[in-house]
Amino acid sequence: QVQLVESGGGLVQAGGSLRLSCVASGRTFNTYTMAWFRQAPGKDREFVATIIWSTSSVAYADSVKGRFTISRDSAKNTVYLQMNSLKPEDTAVYYCAAQVAPGNYHYWGQGTQVTVSS
User: How far is CA 98 from the centre of its chain?
Assistant: First the structure.
């Protein structure tokens, strides 16, 4: 089992920045990828960014490309999401997720709220 705990959410004005953190614990040695998803009120959960743990290769949703950066610190078993130039439409609960193999995300955090005011 892998446990994921997110932190770093909050209220920020449009144009501001936040950095989310997700700490993984438990059986983390076989982590394949980690990712960030988000879910706004009344909308489906959507992919934001992902990082392959072994290579640090990354991918982003078009809506955040150029504004958000995903990174990881393997020594701390932590993945980060640096969010710059935030927009009101970025308001959502942000979730950290982990894969142990290609396919479905097997583990999810509890989520952290990000609210961007206009």
Answer: 10
| Average pLDDT value for the chain | 95
Note every long-range contact of 77-81, with CB atoms under 8 Å and residues 24 or more positions apart, other chains counting: 77/23, 77/24, 77/25, 77/28, 78/21, 78/22, 78/23, 78/24, 79/21, 79/22, 79/24, 79/34, 79/36, 79/51, 80/19, 80/20, 80/21, 80/22, 81/19, 81/20, 81/22, 81/36, 81/48, 81/49
DSSP state of 32: -
- Site of tokens 């982990």: 98
28 pLDDT above the threshold of 80: no
Compute CA distances 58 → 48, 85, 114, 117, whole Å: 11, 20, 22, 28
Three-state secondary structure call for residue 26: strand
What's the whole-number mean pLDDT along residues 78-99? 97
Average pLDDT over residues 21-35: 89
Q: What pLDDT is attached to residue 1?
A: 85
